[in-house]
Amino acid sequence: MTVPPTDHTTTEPGATPPRGCPHADTGVDGLTRLHGPTAETDPMGLYEKLRAAHGPVAPVLLDGDVRAWLVLGYLENRDVASRSTQFSRDPRTWHGWKSGEIDAATSPLVPMIGWRPDCVCADGEEHQRLRGAVTAGLDQFDHRGIRRHITRFAHQLIDGFCERGEVELVSRFTEHLPMLVLTHLLGMPDESGPRLVHAARDLFKATETSLASNAYVLEALEQLVLMKKSAPGQDIASVLLSHPAGLTDEEVKHHLRLILLAGYETTANLMSNVLRMVVTDPRFRGSLAGGQMTLPEAVEQVLWDEPPLMVCPGRWATGDTSLGGQEIKAGDMLLLGLAAGNVDKAIRPDPSTRVHHNRAHLSFSAGAHECPGQDIGRVIADTGIDILLTRLPDIALAVPEERLTWRSSTWSRHLTALPVTFAPRLPEAHDVTAPLPAPPPPSSAVPAAPQLPPADVAVGRGGPRTTWRARLRRFLRRR
Ligand code: HEM
């Protein structure tokens, strides 16, 4: 995955007609824009219109009216993601670079579809070489170890606002927690945390300081590479440096940036979407509180219904072929419509039916590039939300639901703020530093299953305590 996503505030002046213009949603040859007002306000509605007009694969326009195919069908998405010899992940395959369809120096698409020396832009053996190092870096952490860090950071964040009785959860929690965890796993010293977290988050926002923030993050990663060369530790940077794949320093830096950026925005988005459901949908909250739906199930449901990345760039056809009834030419660009594929009637006739434990959604893509960090994303979301709801089971939306706003792009949409209120509480001073867990033993031995506490009891520093579900149930009974 290529990040950061292009925010529409960065669109070339004049490239998108103003709001209200009757042609705002269509461009050359009457093709539908994936960057017009409708794409921003009602992307799911737009995908359904495209599906009705074109079937499972639709011609669309990106920023600057660049042509691409949007894959809407579930099976067609899986097909494109899995057939890497027919659909390359290397953007240099695209004919648009040569035809002058895009100005590589100025197009806001370049961060998403430009080539970089990382595993996202590679196919075949080169992809396996680079991805092997990445997965070795991610797989060294066992989930209990990661959960300890998430727990510590989550409590610290909640301690920072729990006495006030109100907080804006996106900026103070859902965007902050994944970044704290990821910088820690990469091997960043905890002291560099707050400033780096600030810079890395700013980099996504397309503000006037984004370029400076990008430079700061790259500089910090360069320093990290130097530091880990002389003093390796149990972290992703050290594994990338010592991996037999023999990554150059430049490749290590690019992969550290990739992991940080690919993991941050998506996980933050997922957490915001789950918490929004908790505070806006009484049925969702009731199912959680009543135990009919576990938190991991709730997370999976949101992954089906609101993928953190709605459209995934990109694949490029290596030869002429047909797909979903469309004639695709060599060098054409295809986009994986993950959100559209997840609600394809061919596999989900009634999208309102609960998915329970079904994880066959497209939100982590499929095939050789399927997200290698999905379990880390899930554990950050599950653990962080669990702790928040345990500490503040009475959170309630502080504004009418209609006042919630999103920042949208072709690729995703982000809740900009989730203000909530709750009864003020004292901080719990969770400031224990825990060392990173040791890497798993090199043998293939299956580790012993952890002893789970009974359903409504979690073991914390102060011994057993009731979980959020029991507290939430009590809170709902009182209302
Ligand atoms: C809910 C959270 C997440 C979602 C929804 C998500 C989704 C995705 C998607 C859709 C792709 C693109 C695959 C493709 O091109 O076909 C991807 C790739 C990737 N993700 Fe994630 N991701 C998440 C969390 C993470 C985390 C936490 C990490 C790292 C710790 C991570 C690391 C990566 C990497 C390295 C790739 C590139 C893999 C490759 O090209 O081989 N992701 N992710």
Automatic annotation (TrEMBL):
Region listing for Disordered, in residue ranges: 1-40
Alphabetized InterPro entries for the sequence: Cyt_P450_B, Cyt_P450_CS, Cyt_P450_sf
Top-level taxon: Bacteria
Gene3D superfamilies on file: Cytochrome P450 (1.10.630.10)
PANTHER family per record: CYTOCHROME P450 YJIB-RELATED, P450, PUTATIVE (EUROFUNG)-RELATED
Homology family: Belongs to the cytochrome P450 family.
Name the UniProt record assigns to this protein: Cytochrome P450
